Amino acid sequence: MGVSLLSSPAFLVFFSFFTFCLLVDPVLGITRHYKFDVKLHNVTRLCHTRSIVSVNGQFPGPRIVAREGDQLLIKVVNHVPNNVSIHWHGIRQLRSGWADGPAYVTQCPIQTGQSYVYNFTIVGQRGTLFWHAHISWLRATLYGPIVILPKRGVPYPFAKPYMEVPIVFGEWFNADPEAVISQALQTGGGPNVSDAYTINGLPGPLYNCSSKDTFKLKVKPGKTYLLRLINAALNDELFFSIANHTLTVVDVDAIYVTPFETETLLITPGQTTNVILKTKPSYPNAIFFMTARPYVTGQGTFDNSTVAGILEYESPPNSLHSSKMFPLFKPILPALNDTSFATNFASKLRSLASAQYPANVPQKVDKHFFFTVGLGTSPCQHNQTCQGPNGTKFAASVNNISFTMPTTALLQAHFFGQSNGVYTPDFPSSPIIPFNYTGTPPNNTMVINGTRVVVLPFNTSVELVMQDTNILGAESHPLHLHGFNFFVVGQGFGNFDPNKDPAKFNLIDPIERNTVGVPSGGWVAIRFLADNPGVWFMHCHLEVHTSWGLKMAWIVLDGELPNQKLLPPPADLPKC
């Protein structure tokens, strides 16, 4: 018999020291170390076994837990043939852009056999975010939750839940997602769609050969549960509901919101939503489905299926009933194309705008930008037959510029003053050729290719209007901005009117977030303060659109003070 470590004097000394470290400075937080071994391992879903890229042999990947103010040192070791990079989605990365993660934007990818330590501190954020691969389509299996707790001693602005549960939505492909996008880019057509949606990696009982792979949430009556919802799916916005239960939204994208109740919510790829679930006061003698299925606005093919998990109440003591005998209740989700639900849901989101959690909306604007976002075409290569519109290749763009990824990381080129041949600082602030964006599309749908960026002086206050277009069909686009949160000050349908629409902007308590859906056939206006020096990617979080070029980058220059300058690169920064 060995001596229990938990009762050994050495452990007690260590525990006392560890506790002292935790308590010594709650303002600065502590340093937390994680190690991510990126490896291949076999996973079976829907009776298909395939080798997937994963972290530490887990799918979804491991949960990162930290407090506001903590420093994170996450060593990522690449044991797979693919190049790898990891993005800490939604983390502000103040002056630590080297740790942001998008390949060829803030770093060269981590090559096979190499490693990199992502080093960043969580400043002024608390709630739910997530991490995912940021190269090609590897994030199909490389993702996991980031749980940021408030500083020690700081309560939630809502009643403390009995339990907290991450619920991560994903997409499962029976084929290798890398082969799926590679084939699509070669043929110019749309990629094959996923075979299932998943909750915490499990497709659930509505798919063939999947009933054993079902997420079950066991709850007790009369309790409150904080569900940390994350949409890590590649290409689909999702409706979500739990049958016969009401949810209270309290947080999105790690920002507290004015709480509101809803039976169904909409969550785009790249977004997170924290909801409070109050269970029924007594044992209900029933079981309940929680389901998610896509919100679809585009004209392309999509995975028209539904993932289901089970909400099951723990049996009371001495219960004679088996839950197998109970009725099963299923939620009713909105229609696949219910844009009015999407609009109404978005309109309910408001910042707390309290003394403790203010909404610091830029009231004056230094620079105005107007970006069209949408699809387009590229010419088919000579002697090739392409499967895009009218024999072309599908493309996507911002202001009709389809972003060409460089072969050197943009941040390195910027920091060392070596931009020649890597990027040009001439991204247009508005469309080069204006047209009736939501009316009849122009005859010429060809995009321009280029690696162009916007350069902003430090502390520039920015207003950006993003306008969907009708080229190849109107579609909702979830746009994600790295390095910043922004305020969603307005949205509407049709073409943005710069003379009338700004009068309706909400500059008091707009929602603050890092990913926003540009409405199908409409526009959204955001404001942010460029107070974070570095190179910051902005792209559609529908992965197929990013692959087609719906992406761009902002460069924010250093300020004059030492704490307004980008820190120098770490010694182990990967090389291209």
TrEMBL record:
GO terms for biological process: lignin catabolic process. GO terms for molecular function: copper ion binding; hydroquinone:oxygen oxidoreductase activity. It catalyses: 4 hydroquinone + O2 = 4 benzosemiquinone + 2 H2O. PROSITE patterns: MULTICOPPER_OXIDASE1, MULTICOPPER_OXIDASE2. Keywords: Apoplast, Copper, Glycoprotein, Lignin degradation, Metal-binding, Oxidoreductase, Repeat, Secreted, Signal. It is found in: Secreted, Extracellular space, Apoplast. Binds 4 Cu cations per monomer. Residues 38-151, 164-315, 428-558 form the Plastocyanin-like domain. InterPro entries: Cu-oxidase-like_N, Cu-oxidase_2nd, Cu-oxidase_C, Cu-oxidase_fam, Cu_oxidase_CS, Cu_oxidase_Cu_BS, Cupredoxin, CuRO_1_LCC. GO terms for cellular component: apoplast. Its cofactor is Cu cation. The keyword Calcium does not apply. It is an enzyme of class 1 (oxidoreductase). Its main location: secreted. CDD domains: CuRO_1_LCC_plant, CuRO_2_LCC_plant, CuRO_3_LCC_plant. Pfam families: Cu-oxidase, Cu-oxidase_2, Cu-oxidase_3. Its EC number is 1.10.3.2. Lignin degradation and detoxification of lignin-derived products. Belongs to the multicopper oxidase family. This is Laccase. It comes from Gossypium australe.
